[in-house]
Write a structure and sequence with these properties.
heterodimer; A: alpha+beta; three-stranded antiparallel β-sheet; 3 strands; about 55% helix; B: alpha+beta; 5 domains; nine-stranded mixed β-sheet; 26 helices; 24 strands; about 15% strand
């Protein structure tokens, strides 16, 4: 298996926002979901997830609530706010631009 | 950023700041949940519980680091760190109460002295008058020499006719009012009790926008010609409280007085002290009641309120246009040359938002200088603390190095060190406010005399708090700079185990040299002011004032019309001259430094010679004052109205106009404004006297016989030299006056006191600058002592080796002293240069010595070197007590 890809600076935020756009999740679930959804290609260290979450919360893009989990323990669930949705749209768009630009450069025929 | 997002963010940050502990608990819980889930997963895969836990924690990568990162992400770390640092600083201060007390006390005194001086400056020059829209107020000042006649009052600019002409013709002010200062005697009989009074035009209170606290204030209808019969009066809050117990039935009552029986119509609010800063008016009367309307009587100030939008420049230009017409219509009966000058006078419009103040002229500069001096004292105190904190920073260098090595950011370390000095400065400045309040209140009495009571509103305002805060912050930066430099340098050499014992001593030495330099500047300045005061005290006034009492008896012109007064003077003279114990007594118009002046123009051989100071005195005046005759004779009772007019002149007068040979020569005193005047024959020459100012040199004075003067004063002044104390003399005079007429009021001046009162400003400067430089010297010596002691302690091993190798005690002492001398010398060289420059700034305030006086500088240097060496000698002596063996064993 190839080495997990290092996340491009700032893309972790985008991934978290995207995930939370689907449903509110707690930190552990987010890290699990990231691994599953990217087929273990994207590996976010469990440690760096939380500072990112707190930063997003400070920005007002996500909000947190303590709720019971599926196995009846208390965990902090994060959900997207309204301004978070807008931010997601913005970041998605700029990601698409960036990805498109990079792919077109990479796709240039080599002579 | 939308508003609700902003609100959300602020709420979150505040929550995490104020609920730091609970936010931390949440973090804990959140991380714990994550770790537990990981552990569960690992166990499910068959890993042993212990190993599962290890794996989970490793995945998180250090719980504490994560927590710190999350705190950073919360964005409150700066604030939170400040709170932490303040707590830490307070804890450290509590652990070292002696250090804390020294630090806080020295800053309290240092900042307190600065705040006190600033408070006085603020009250004197910066604070606006407590009236609505003070910035609209301006004062008219006439320019040019052209006001011949009589002058009265501290704020005199215009005559009453001039003010009226300005008020009538001007169109730049919403209104223009006039006021003149006076003294008001509250005690109709016995010893006078003078309070400050003001004459005001009818529109004064209205223009200022002052509202009555009680009753009503003087209005235009109160200021009409003929009001002398039944004048009204407004009193101040202070007088109302002090004299009338704040009773509300005061309105309609009569003010006690010998002259004007004015009816009280109102009381001004508490904060309104008048228009003159430095004074507190007690009684305000309408100008019409003064009876002073002559064209050649200069006694009023004119203050206007600009129309909205008008500038002082516009007002001045407009008034200047009106000036010729105003001068034309208000000119006194002048002879041609005076008339010419009068017509050429100009007018200036100056800002009066912070009131008028002759006091400002004499004290603004001294106060700025005192502020500079106290700032330097504070600097020395701050350097001492910087040195102390530096010593502690050096002691903590291992801690700093470890923190930096463990990844603590230098900024964070710096922040902590600076916070500590800020906390000290903040505590110091709180205490300083108390010091300042007490100190600022103690100064006005020092520059007051019984007659001239100085009142300054020193209540705190935003300027004062701003100043104190600024002083505290600057101090904190100075105090913290040394240790901060030291602390961050620890980062450059992680693992300071091997650092030399002299660590930081270079910086500390430089700081001490700086202290020595500043102290020298202060010592030099203090000595300059002390010597100025000494020189001034030693000035020969030309009289021997010791034991001479100068009572002034006030006669009411209505009860004592001129002829009756003349008789009364004769009878009173008789009683006073024959009092038991009186050696010598005389009547006189004024006395040296007595406050009244007369300076008419004189003519010899039909040629105008300019003006001379003048006095009119009775026989034995010179004998009483101890002024010797150079030639000729004293006045006698034979020099009476109708006999030939005679005069006595002083030596300078004789030298100037008659080449020293004045007896028998004649001169003419020109009447005010014009007229032929009267011619006098000189019958005597006396030694020089000072007239009004101790600093004047060779002032010209002539004396005429009091009995021959064409007009008769309403006051009779005496000079009395007697065998008893001045108190005995005052009691005897009081009894004699009461026996003559119990309805007379008397003021008792004491000649010596009057002369000394001419040196109040110099005395204040001498006392305060001496006090400040003394404090500076003590602080600098303490600083030097600390550094030398520290250096001896850190060179213990070296000294031990030297002594083991045979160095004698005196050699060790010399070595330490040589080390000290280097610091002191560097400081003295730098200090001398600055002192000489600083001397120039105060040159105008000195008397009898130059601002670069070498003797004074030598004394200052000598005193400083001596105390510095004494301060170093003690630790140097201690160095010789070092036990070589023990010291070497420690190495």
């Amino acid at each position: 298996m190839s080495r997990p890809v290092d996340l491009v600076q700032g893309t972790l935020d985008l991934l978290i926002l995207k995930m939370l756009a689907l449903e509110p999740l707690h930190g552990f679930a987010i890290s699990q979901r990231l691994k599953q959804m990217s087929g273990d290609v994207l590996q976010v260290s469990d440690g760096s997830l939380y500072p990112a979450l707190h930063k997003l919360e400070q920005q007002g893009w996500i909000e947190a609530e303590w709720k019971a989990t599926e196995n009846n323990r208390r965990a902090k669930f994060y959900a997207l706010t309204r301004s978070g949705k807008k931010q997601l749209a913005r970041e998605t768009e700029s990601w698409a631009r960036l990805a498109g630009a990079i792919s077109s450069v990479v796709a240039l025929p080599e002579v | 950023m939308t508003l609700d997002r902003l609100v959300h963010i602020v709420r979150l940050r505040l929550r995490s700041l104020f609920a730091g502990a609970s936010a931390d608990r949440e973090l804990d819980e959140e991380l714990r949940y994550h770790v537990e889930r990981l552990v569960d997963e690992h166990i499910a895969r068959g890993v042993s519980p212990h190993e599962a836990r290890m794996l989970a924690l490793r995945a998180i990568g250090g719980v504490e680091q994560r927590k710190e990162e999350m705190r950073d992400a919360r964005g409150v770390s700066l604030l939170e760190h400040v709170v932490q640092d303040v707590r830490l600083a307070l804890r450290q201060l509590r652990k070292q109460p002696a250090f804390a007390a020294t630090a806080i006390l020295s800053l309290a005194l240092g900042i307190g002295a600065n705040t006190a001086i600033f408070q006085l400056l603020n009250a004197l020059s910066l604070r606006p008058l407590p009236v609505p829209a003070p910035h609209e107020l301006v004062e008219l000042r006439l320019t040019g020499e052209g006001r011949d006649g009589s002058h009265n009052g501290r704020n005199r600019q215009v005559s009453l006719p001039q003010y009226q002409a300005f008020a009538e013709r001007q169109d730049v002010f919403a209104s223009l009012f006039a006021f003149g200062d006076t003294r008001y005697n509250l005690s109709p009989t016995g010893e006078v009790r003078h309070v400050d009074g003001v004459w005001v035009s009818g529109n004064a209170f209205e223009t200022l926008g002052v509202r009555p606290l009680l009753g009503r204030l003087i209005a235009p209808q109160d200021d009409q010609p003929g009001c002398q019969a039944a004048p009204v009066a407004v009193i101040s809050y202070a007088l109302w409280q002090g004299e009338f117990g704040g009773r509300s039935d005061i309105i309609g009552r009569k003010l006690p007085s010998t002259g004007i029986g004015a009816t009280i119509i109102g009381v001004t609010p508490r904060e309104f002290f008048g228009i003159e800063v430095g004074r507190q008016f007690a009684v305000a009367l309408p100008i019409c009641a003064s009876g002073l309307g002559r064209r050649d009587h200069w006694w009023l100030a004119a203050v206007g309120r600009l129309k909205p939008g008008a500038t002082t420049g516009q007002a001045q230009a407009r008034l200047q246009q009106l000036m010729p017409a105003i001068q034309q219509t208000t000119m006194p009966d002048y002879r041609p040359e005076l008339a010419d000058a009068y017509l050429k006078m100009g007018v200036e419009v100056v800002d009066a938002s912070s009131g008028l103040s002759p006091l400002r002229r004499s004290y603004q500069r001294p106060l700025w200088i005192l502020l500079a001096i106290s700032a330097l004292v504070l600097l020395i105190a701050a350097i001492n603390l910087a040195n102390l904190l530096l010593a502690r920073a050096i002691a903590r260098r291992d801690e700093f190095a470890v923190r930096l090595a463990l990844g603590g950011s230098p900024v964070r370390v710096l922040q902590q060190v600076l916070t500590e000095s800020l906390v000290i400065a903040a505590l110091g400045s709180v205490a300083a406010m108390g010091v300042a309040m007490a100190a600022a209140r103690s100064i006005p009495p020092l520059i007051s005399t019984p007659v001239d009571r100085i009142h300054l509103d020193v209540s705190p305002d935003w300027r004062l708090f701003g100043f104190t805060a600024a002083a505290a912050i600057v101090t904190a930066l100075i105090v913290g700079s040394g240790p901060a430099l030291r602390a961050t340098r620890a980062s450059l050499r992680v693992g300071t185990r091997g650092a030399s014992a002299n660590d930081g001593l270079g910086l500390r030495r430089a700081l001490v040299a700086m202290q020595i330099a500043v102290t020298l500047v202060l010592l030099f300045g203090g000595l300059l002011f002390v010597r100025t005061f000494q020189n001034l005290s030693a000035v020969d006034v030309g009289v021997h004032g010791r034991g001479v009492v100068a009572p002034v008896v006030f006669f009411n012109a209505r009860i004592y019309p001129e002829e009756r007064r003349r008789q009364a003077y004769r009878a009173l003279d008789e009683r006073i001259f024959n009092l038991a114990g009186v050696h010598s007594a005389a009547a006189a118009y004024t006395t040296p430094m007595g406050g009244s002046s007369w300076d008419p123009d004189i003519e010899t051989d039909r040629q105008l010679k300019g003006s001379s100071n003048a006095n009119r005195v009775g026989p034995r005046y010179f004998e009483t004052l101890g002024t010797p005759f150079v030639a000729g004779r004293d006045f006698t009772d034979a020099d009476r109205p109708g006999s030939p007019l005679v005069a006595i002149v002083n030596r300078s007068f004789a030298a100037r106009f008659f080449d020293g040979d004045a007896i028998g020569r004649r001169f003419r005193i020109l009447a005010d404004g014009g007229g032929p005047g009267r011619e006098y024959a000189i019958v005597g020459v006396v030694a020089d006297q000072k007239y009004q100012d101790l600093r004047e040199a060779n002032s010209l004075i002539f004396f005429t016989a009091l009995a021959q003067h064409p007009s008769l004063e309403t006051t009779r002044r005496y000079v009395i030299r007697s065998a008893g104390t001045s108190r005995d003399t005052i009691a005897a005079v009081g009894a004699a006056v009461t026996a003559f007429d119990p309805g007379l009021a008397v003021r008792y001046d004491v000649l010596d006191t009057q002369i000394r009162d001419g040196m109040l400003q110099e005395r204040l400067m001498a006392r305060l600058s001496a006090l400040f430089s003394g404090v500076a010297l003590v602080l600098a010596v303490v600083g030097l002592y600390g550094v030398v002691s520290y250096s001896v302690a850190s060179r213990r091993g070296e000294i031990g080796v030297r002594m083991a190798l045979g160095a004698t005690r005196s050699r060790v002492v010399r070595m330490i002293l040589a080390d000290t001398s280097r610091m002191v010398c560097a400081g003295i060289v730098a200090g001398s240069l600055v002192a000489l420059l600083a001397g120039r700034a105060v040159g105008a305030m000195l008397f009898g010595l130059q601002p670069n006086d070498p003797a004074t500088l030598s004394i200052a240097i000598g005193a400083l070197v001596l105390t510095a060496l004494l301060a170093a000698l003690w630790p140097a002596q201690r160095a010789t007590g070092i036990d070589s063996v023990a010291a070497l064993r420690e190495q």
